[in-house]
Design a protein that fits this description.
By secondary structure, the chain is an alpha/beta fold. The chain has eight helices and nine strands. Helices cover 29% and strands 11% of the residues. The chain has a six-stranded parallel β-sheet, sandwiched between helices. The chain is globular.
Length: 299
């Protein structure tokens, strides 16, 4: 198998180096972390590459031994790159592999990868959660008597970095209560503090989220997803779930974002992606979610 780095300059893909295993990188990725949302953009980019290069082989190098990404590890490349990568080397398996020439794409900041993917639209994927995850979700749904159609809601109020992504729990609760007047609401979120988001009559999925894969699977079954600027909404979009993305910055406002000009807005994979102003009018946010809810389900 010919090994060529996915290079910023040549764009000749054959190796995707997730964790800078090859010491040819010029700079380290921020925090050297590979979070849930980052994995969504990798799936999208490499799926696009595979469609454009059906006859070429792709080797993925992945390092999984980072404690800080423990929750994310369940979203494993062996799942989201199945049918895309010809070979995946995990951690020490890549030791001794002759470093290819060029600059691994991993040296780019992750939001640069989002920009590249955004320019590749329209995007489509057949990826679905693993069978055992879907079976677990069905068991939980039956136990909760959750209706077949529901709106999944995930508040974000405790992000420890880039805190412009946070909104007070009472704001989220106000939005979700308005949605619950018309549609079944299922709540996802951090189990240690979800009691701060009081939504009478809502179905609590958050006690059953063992890891990130459970969160993604629950999201994949929703009729609509409402959430903040974090990883699970990106995967809802990948699964073609209509999405209301609650963010501080959107469209032209990104040019005024002093926080590294990051543009990691969710990207549509066929279903609508709608922006709602974080900490804005709760009624407007609820209206956008219910507007998507009232549309006939996609066939």
């Amino acid at each position: 198998m010919s090994i060529i780095v996915l290079s910023e300059r040549t764009a000749e893909p054959a190796v995707w180096d997730f964790m800078a295993a090859y010491r040819t990188t010029r700079k380290k990725f921020h925090g050297k972390l590979f979070r849930v949302g980052d994995r969504a953009v990798v799936h999208g980019l490499l799926s696009q590459w595979r469609r454009a290069n059906p006859g070429r082989q792709l080797l993925v190098v992945y390092e999984e031994n980072l404690v800080s990404t423990a929750f994310s590890k369940a979203v494993n490349p062996s799942w989201f790159l199945e049918g895309v990568a010809d070979q995946i080397l995990m951690g020490k398996e890549a030791k001794g592999l002759r470093p290819p020439r060029g600059e691994p794409l991993y040296s780019a900041q992750i939001f640069d990868l989002w920009r590249r993917l955004r320019g590749s639209a329209p995007l489509h994927t057949k990826l679905r959660p693993p069978a055992d995850s879907l079976e677990y979700a069905d068991t939980i749904f039956r136990g909760l008597h959750l209706p077949a159609r529901f709106i999944a809601c995930q508040p974000l109020y405790d992000a420890p970095y880039d805190k412009h992504r946070n909104a007070p729990p009472v704001w989220w609760a106000d939005v979700f209560r308005r949605i619950a007047r018309e549609a079944p609401v299922a709540l996802l979120g951090p189990r240690q503090s979800m009691d701060l988001v009081n939504v009478p009559g809502a179905y609590g999925l958050w006690p059953h989220e063992r890891n990130a894969m459970d969160s993604l699977t629950f999201a994949s079954r929703a009729a609509v997803f409402v959430g903040g600027d974090t990883g699970v909404p990106h995967w809802a979009a990948v699964f073609s779930v209509p999405l209301v993305s609650c963010q501080t910055y959107w469209d032209i406002q990104w040019s005024n974002n002093r926080l590294r000009h990051m543009d990691v807005r969710p990207i549509s994979f066929g279903a609508p992606v709608v922006h709602a102003r974080l900490r804005g009018d709760p009624e407007e946010t609820a209206y956008k979610a219910l507007e998507l809810w009232r549309r006939p389900p996609a066939s």
